[in-house]
Protein backbone atom coordinates (compact mmCIF):
# COMPACT_ATOMS: atom_id res chain seq x y z
CA UNK A 1 0.00 0.00 0.00
CA UNK A 2 1.30 3.44 -0.93
CA UNK A 3 0.78 6.33 1.50
CA UNK A 4 1.85 9.29 -0.60
CA UNK A 5 4.22 11.45 1.44
CA UNK A 6 3.96 9.27 4.55
CA UNK A 7 5.57 6.04 3.37
CA UNK A 8 8.27 6.25 6.07
CA UNK A 9 5.66 6.32 8.83
CA UNK A 10 3.81 3.40 7.25
CA UNK A 11 6.98 1.32 6.84
CA UNK A 12 7.82 1.93 10.50
CA UNK A 13 4.39 0.64 11.56
CA UNK A 14 4.73 -2.41 9.30
CA UNK A 15 8.08 -3.30 10.84
CA UNK A 16 6.56 -2.95 14.32
CA UNK A 17 3.99 -5.59 13.40
CA UNK A 18 6.34 -7.84 11.44
CA UNK A 19 8.92 -7.88 14.23
CA UNK A 20 6.23 -8.40 16.89
CA UNK A 21 7.16 -5.16 18.65
CA UNK A 22 3.72 -3.55 18.61
CA UNK A 23 3.51 -0.88 21.31
CA UNK A 24 0.42 -0.65 23.49
CA UNK A 25 -0.13 3.01 22.56
CA UNK A 26 0.79 5.24 19.60
CA UNK A 27 0.36 8.99 19.22
CA UNK A 28 -0.09 10.20 15.65
CA UNK A 29 0.67 13.91 15.90
CA UNK A 30 0.59 16.63 13.24
CA UNK A 31 -1.65 19.36 11.82
CA UNK A 32 -5.26 18.48 11.10
CA UNK A 33 -6.23 17.40 7.59
CA UNK A 34 -3.19 15.22 6.84
CA UNK A 35 -4.98 11.87 6.72
CA UNK A 36 -3.74 10.55 10.09
CA UNK A 37 -7.04 8.81 10.82
CA UNK A 38 -6.93 6.97 7.49
CA UNK A 39 -3.44 5.67 8.30
CA UNK A 40 -4.66 4.66 11.79
CA UNK A 41 -7.48 2.62 10.26
CA UNK A 42 -5.08 0.96 7.80
CA UNK A 43 -2.79 0.12 10.73
CA UNK A 44 -5.71 -1.58 12.52
CA UNK A 45 -6.37 -3.56 9.32
CA UNK A 46 -2.69 -4.52 9.15
CA UNK A 47 -2.82 -5.81 12.72
CA UNK A 48 -5.88 -7.95 12.09
CA UNK A 49 -5.79 -8.91 8.40
CA UNK A 50 -6.51 -12.61 7.89
CA UNK A 51 -4.35 -13.35 4.84
CA UNK A 52 -1.33 -15.56 5.68
CA UNK A 53 1.27 -13.68 3.62
CA UNK A 54 2.34 -10.56 5.55
CA UNK A 55 3.44 -8.81 2.34
CA UNK A 56 -0.21 -8.84 1.17
CA UNK A 57 -1.56 -7.16 4.29
CA UNK A 58 -3.84 -5.32 4.60
CA UNK A 59 -5.66 -7.15 1.80
CA UNK A 60 -8.83 -4.98 1.96
CA UNK A 61 -10.92 -8.05 1.07
CA UNK A 62 -11.00 -10.38 4.10
CA UNK A 63 -13.88 -10.11 6.58
CA UNK A 64 -11.68 -8.26 9.09
CA UNK A 65 -10.51 -5.59 6.62
CA UNK A 66 -14.02 -5.13 5.23
CA UNK A 67 -15.62 -4.76 8.66
CA UNK A 68 -13.05 -2.13 9.67
CA UNK A 69 -13.70 -0.20 6.44
CA UNK A 70 -17.45 -0.40 7.06
CA UNK A 71 -17.14 0.60 10.73
CA UNK A 72 -18.73 -2.63 11.96
CA UNK A 73 -15.72 -4.45 13.42
CA UNK A 74 -16.64 -5.55 16.97
CA UNK A 75 -13.02 -5.42 18.14
CA UNK A 76 -12.40 -1.82 17.04
CA UNK A 77 -13.61 1.19 19.02
CA UNK A 78 -13.39 4.74 17.61
CA UNK A 79 -13.93 7.90 19.66
CA UNK A 80 -14.36 11.35 18.09
CA UNK A 81 -15.33 14.67 19.71
CA UNK A 82 -18.92 15.84 19.52
CA UNK A 83 -20.75 19.06 20.29
CA UNK A 84 -24.21 20.01 21.48
CA UNK A 85 -26.99 18.94 19.12
CA UNK A 86 -28.73 22.22 19.94
CA UNK A 87 -25.75 24.36 18.94
CA UNK A 88 -23.54 23.12 16.07
CA UNK A 89 -21.09 25.96 16.79
CA UNK A 90 -20.53 24.91 20.41
CA UNK A 91 -17.18 23.54 21.54
CA UNK A 92 -16.52 19.94 20.58
CA UNK A 93 -15.30 17.72 23.39
CA UNK A 94 -14.45 14.19 24.42
CA UNK A 95 -15.69 13.69 27.95
CA UNK A 96 -15.61 11.13 30.72
CA UNK A 97 -18.71 9.36 29.37
CA UNK A 98 -16.84 8.39 26.19
CA UNK A 99 -13.98 6.92 28.24
CA UNK A 100 -16.45 4.98 30.40
CA UNK A 101 -17.89 3.48 27.22
CA UNK A 102 -14.32 2.61 26.23
CA UNK A 103 -13.80 0.86 29.58
CA UNK A 104 -16.87 -1.26 28.92
CA UNK A 105 -15.55 -2.12 25.44
CA UNK A 106 -12.17 -3.18 26.85
CA UNK A 107 -13.82 -5.50 29.38
CA UNK A 108 -15.34 -7.53 26.55
CA UNK A 109 -13.47 -10.55 25.24
CA UNK A 110 -11.91 -10.29 21.80
CA UNK A 111 -14.42 -11.52 19.23
CA UNK A 112 -12.03 -12.79 16.57
CA UNK A 113 -9.35 -10.13 15.95
CA UNK A 114 -5.66 -10.49 16.73
CA UNK A 115 -5.72 -7.12 18.52
CA UNK A 116 -8.46 -5.16 20.20
CA UNK A 117 -7.96 -1.66 18.78
CA UNK A 118 -8.90 1.82 20.04
CA UNK A 119 -8.69 4.99 17.93
CA UNK A 120 -9.21 8.37 19.59
CA UNK A 121 -9.43 11.16 17.01
CA UNK A 122 -8.72 14.82 17.88
CA UNK A 123 -7.52 13.70 21.29
CA UNK A 124 -6.57 17.27 22.25
CA UNK A 125 -10.31 17.81 22.77
CA UNK A 126 -10.45 15.40 25.70
CA UNK A 127 -11.25 17.23 28.91
CA UNK A 128 -8.96 16.69 31.87
CA UNK A 129 -11.25 14.08 33.44
CA UNK A 130 -11.25 12.04 30.24
CA UNK A 131 -7.46 12.31 29.94
CA UNK A 132 -6.88 11.15 33.51
CA UNK A 133 -9.25 8.24 33.01
CA UNK A 134 -7.52 7.26 29.75
CA UNK A 135 -4.15 7.50 31.48
CA UNK A 136 -5.18 4.75 33.89
CA UNK A 137 -6.16 2.49 30.99
CA UNK A 138 -2.86 3.07 29.19
CA UNK A 139 -0.80 2.60 32.36
CA UNK A 140 -2.32 -0.86 32.81
CA UNK A 141 -2.73 -2.08 29.23
CA UNK A 142 -4.62 -5.27 28.56
CA UNK A 143 -2.88 -7.94 26.53
CA UNK A 144 -3.13 -7.56 22.74
CA UNK A 145 -4.80 -4.15 22.97
CA UNK A 146 -3.55 -1.19 20.92
CA UNK A 147 -4.42 2.47 21.45
CA UNK A 148 -3.95 4.85 18.51
CA UNK A 149 -4.30 8.44 19.68
CA UNK A 150 -4.56 11.15 17.00
CA UNK A 151 -3.88 14.81 17.78
CA UNK A 152 -2.98 18.05 16.05
CA UNK A 153 -1.88 19.70 19.31
CA UNK A 154 0.12 17.43 21.59
CA UNK A 155 0.79 20.31 24.00
CA UNK A 156 -2.91 20.37 24.93
CA UNK A 157 -2.66 16.86 26.34
CA UNK A 158 -1.27 15.85 29.72
CA UNK A 159 2.46 15.16 29.45
CA UNK A 160 1.98 12.14 31.71
CA UNK A 161 -0.38 10.77 29.05
CA UNK A 162 1.57 11.27 25.83
CA UNK A 163 4.87 10.32 27.46
CA UNK A 164 3.54 6.76 27.64
CA UNK A 165 2.98 6.57 23.89
CA UNK A 166 5.14 5.86 20.85
CA UNK A 167 5.06 9.21 19.02
CA UNK A 168 4.84 9.25 15.22
CA UNK A 169 5.02 12.70 13.60
CA UNK A 170 3.26 13.86 10.44
CA UNK A 171 3.84 17.12 8.54
CA UNK A 172 2.10 18.80 5.58
CA UNK A 173 3.60 17.95 2.21
CA UNK A 174 5.52 20.53 0.17
CA UNK A 175 3.03 22.11 -2.25
CA UNK A 176 4.68 20.72 -5.43
CA UNK A 177 4.43 17.21 -3.96
CA UNK A 178 0.79 17.77 -3.00
CA UNK A 179 0.06 19.05 -6.51
CA UNK A 180 1.58 15.89 -7.99
CA UNK A 181 -0.70 13.71 -5.88
CA UNK A 182 -3.86 15.71 -6.68
CA UNK A 183 -3.29 16.54 -10.36
CA UNK A 184 -5.22 13.59 -11.78
CA UNK A 185 -8.11 13.94 -9.33
CA UNK A 186 -9.51 17.37 -10.28
CA UNK A 187 -9.60 19.81 -13.20
CA UNK A 188 -6.64 22.12 -13.79
CA UNK A 189 -8.62 25.11 -12.48
CA UNK A 190 -9.73 23.33 -9.33
CA UNK A 191 -6.22 21.95 -8.82
CA UNK A 192 -4.72 25.41 -8.28
CA UNK A 193 -7.45 26.32 -5.79
CA UNK A 194 -7.24 22.97 -4.01
CA UNK A 195 -3.46 23.06 -3.54
CA UNK A 196 -3.67 26.66 -2.33
CA UNK A 197 -6.43 26.05 0.21
CA UNK A 198 -5.24 22.69 1.55
CA UNK A 199 -1.62 23.85 2.01
CA UNK A 200 -0.13 20.37 1.68
CA UNK A 201 -2.76 18.64 3.82
CA UNK A 202 -3.93 15.77 1.64
CA UNK A 203 -6.65 14.66 4.04
CA UNK A 204 -8.29 18.08 3.80
CA UNK A 205 -7.81 18.13 0.02
CA UNK A 206 -9.57 14.78 -0.38
CA UNK A 207 -12.45 15.91 1.85
CA UNK A 208 -12.92 18.97 -0.35
CA UNK A 209 -12.81 16.85 -3.51
CA UNK A 210 -15.44 14.52 -2.07
CA UNK A 211 -17.62 17.42 -0.93
CA UNK A 212 -17.85 19.93 -3.81
CA UNK A 213 -20.31 22.06 -1.84
CA UNK A 214 -17.79 22.54 0.94
CA UNK A 215 -15.04 23.19 -1.62
CA UNK A 216 -17.10 26.01 -3.13
CA UNK A 217 -17.82 27.37 0.34
CA UNK A 218 -14.09 27.41 1.16
CA UNK A 219 -13.42 29.38 -2.04
CA UNK A 220 -16.28 31.78 -1.39
CA UNK A 221 -15.23 32.34 2.24
CA UNK A 222 -11.59 32.99 1.32
CA UNK A 223 -12.65 35.56 -1.27
CA UNK A 224 -15.01 37.18 1.24
CA UNK A 225 -12.28 37.36 3.89
CA UNK A 226 -9.89 39.00 1.43
CA UNK A 227 -12.57 41.63 0.79
CA UNK A 228 -13.76 42.35 4.31
CA UNK A 229 -10.25 42.69 5.77
CA UNK A 230 -9.69 45.70 3.53
CA UNK A 231 -13.07 47.16 4.54
CA UNK A 232 -14.18 49.26 7.53
CA UNK A 233 -14.71 47.49 10.86
CA UNK A 234 -18.49 47.63 10.44
CA UNK A 235 -18.28 45.37 7.37
CA UNK A 236 -15.91 43.01 9.15
CA UNK A 237 -18.25 42.64 12.11
CA UNK A 238 -21.17 42.06 9.73
CA UNK A 239 -19.21 39.16 8.23
CA UNK A 240 -18.84 37.63 11.70
CA UNK A 241 -22.53 38.18 12.43
CA UNK A 242 -23.56 36.50 9.16
CA UNK A 243 -21.33 33.47 9.83
CA UNK A 244 -22.75 32.97 13.31
CA UNK A 245 -26.34 33.41 12.16
CA UNK A 246 -25.98 30.83 9.42
CA UNK A 247 -24.57 28.21 11.84
CA UNK A 248 -23.57 26.25 8.77
CA UNK A 249 -23.04 22.53 9.20
CA UNK A 250 -20.71 22.71 6.20
CA UNK A 251 -18.19 25.15 7.68
CA UNK A 252 -17.12 24.74 11.29
CA UNK A 253 -15.40 27.45 13.38
CA UNK A 254 -12.16 25.45 13.10
CA UNK A 255 -12.41 25.40 9.31
CA UNK A 256 -13.10 29.13 9.27
CA UNK A 257 -9.88 29.65 11.24
CA UNK A 258 -8.04 27.46 8.72
CA UNK A 259 -9.17 29.78 5.92
CA UNK A 260 -8.13 32.86 7.91
CA UNK A 261 -4.76 31.21 8.47
CA UNK A 262 -4.23 30.71 4.72
CA UNK A 263 -5.10 34.37 4.11
CA UNK A 264 -2.79 35.81 6.78
CA UNK A 265 0.13 33.57 5.81
CA UNK A 266 -0.31 34.59 2.18
CA UNK A 267 -0.46 38.23 3.26
CA UNK A 268 2.77 37.79 5.25
CA UNK A 269 4.56 36.19 2.29
CA UNK A 270 3.46 39.07 0.08
CA UNK A 271 4.52 41.66 2.66
CA UNK A 272 7.96 40.07 3.00
CA UNK A 273 8.41 39.98 -0.77
CA UNK A 274 8.17 36.19 -1.01
CA UNK A 275 5.39 36.48 -3.58
CA UNK A 276 6.03 38.32 -6.84
CA UNK A 277 2.57 39.86 -6.82
CA UNK A 278 -0.88 39.40 -5.41
CA UNK A 279 -1.85 37.34 -8.46
CA UNK A 280 0.52 34.52 -7.50
CA UNK A 281 -2.34 32.35 -6.32
CA UNK A 282 -5.30 31.12 -8.34
CA UNK A 283 -7.98 33.40 -6.92
CA UNK A 284 -7.14 36.35 -9.12
CA UNK A 285 -6.20 39.44 -7.20
CA UNK A 286 -6.34 38.96 -3.43
CA UNK A 287 -6.97 42.20 -1.61
CA UNK A 288 -4.03 42.91 0.67
CA UNK A 289 -4.29 46.32 2.26
CA UNK A 290 -1.00 48.12 1.42
CA UNK A 291 -1.09 49.61 4.91
CA UNK A 292 -0.98 46.17 6.58
CA UNK A 293 2.09 46.10 8.82
CA UNK A 294 4.20 42.98 9.19
CA UNK A 295 3.84 43.16 12.97
CA UNK A 296 0.05 43.27 12.66
CA UNK A 297 -0.07 40.24 10.35
CA UNK A 298 2.22 38.24 12.65
CA UNK A 299 0.02 39.27 15.58
CA UNK A 300 -3.07 37.99 13.74
CA UNK A 301 -1.36 34.64 13.03
CA UNK A 302 -0.34 34.31 16.70
CA UNK A 303 -3.86 35.19 17.83
CA UNK A 304 -5.28 32.56 15.47
CA UNK A 305 -3.21 29.87 17.17
CA UNK A 306 -4.26 31.14 20.59
CA UNK A 307 -7.87 31.14 19.43
CA UNK A 308 -7.60 27.50 18.34
CA UNK A 309 -6.41 26.63 21.84
CA UNK A 310 -9.28 28.52 23.46
CA UNK A 311 -11.87 26.92 21.15
CA UNK A 312 -10.63 23.45 22.05
CA UNK A 313 -10.51 24.00 25.80
CA UNK A 314 -13.15 26.54 26.79
CA UNK A 315 -16.67 27.67 25.91
CA UNK A 316 -15.52 31.07 24.74
CA UNK A 317 -17.70 33.74 23.14
CA UNK A 318 -16.99 33.02 19.47
CA UNK A 319 -18.46 36.34 18.33
CA UNK A 320 -16.09 38.38 20.47
CA UNK A 321 -13.14 36.18 19.53
CA UNK A 322 -13.73 36.55 15.77
CA UNK A 323 -14.38 40.30 16.07
CA UNK A 324 -11.09 40.64 17.96
CA UNK A 325 -9.32 38.77 15.15
CA UNK A 326 -10.83 41.22 12.65
CA UNK A 327 -9.17 44.17 14.41
CA UNK A 328 -5.59 42.90 14.16
CA UNK A 329 -5.01 44.42 10.69
For the biggest β-sheet, the strand order reads 2-3-4-1-5
Counted beta strands: 5
User: Per the principal axes of the C-alpha atoms, what is the gross shape?
Assistant: globular
| First-residue to last-residue Cα separation | 46 Å
Rg (CA only): 21 Å
Within CATH, the superfamily of the largest domain carries the name: P-loop containing nucleotide triphosphate hydrolases
Counted by DSSP, the helix tally is 14
CATH topology of the largest domain: Rossmann fold
Number of domains: 2
Helix/sheet category: alpha/beta
Q: What proportion of the residues form beta strands (DSSP E)?
A: 5-15%
What does this structure look like?
The chain is α/β, with parallel strands linked by helices. It folds into two domains: 7-169, Rossmann fold; 211-326, no CATH class. It has helices at 7-18, 36-48, 63-70, 96-107, 128-139, 159-162, 175-182, 188-198, 202-210, 212-228, 233-246, 253-271, 294-313, 318-326, and strands at residues 25-29, 76-79, 116-120, 145-151, 166-169. Strand 2, helix 4 (96-107) and strand 3 (116-120) form a beta-alpha-beta unit. Helix 8 packs across helix 9. The longest helix has 20 residues, at 294-313. The chain is globular. The relative contact order is 0.11. The model is unreliable at 276-280 (pLDDT under 50).
Amino acid sequence: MNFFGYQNQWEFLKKEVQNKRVAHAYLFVGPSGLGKKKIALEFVKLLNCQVPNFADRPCQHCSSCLSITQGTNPDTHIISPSNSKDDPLSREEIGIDEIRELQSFLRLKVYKASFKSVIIDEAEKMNVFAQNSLLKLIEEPKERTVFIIISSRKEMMLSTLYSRMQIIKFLPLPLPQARKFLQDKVSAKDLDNLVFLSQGRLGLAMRLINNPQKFRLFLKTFSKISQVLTSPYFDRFQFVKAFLQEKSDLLTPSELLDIFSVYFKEALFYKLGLKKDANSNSFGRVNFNPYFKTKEIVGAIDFLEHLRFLLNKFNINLKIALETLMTYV
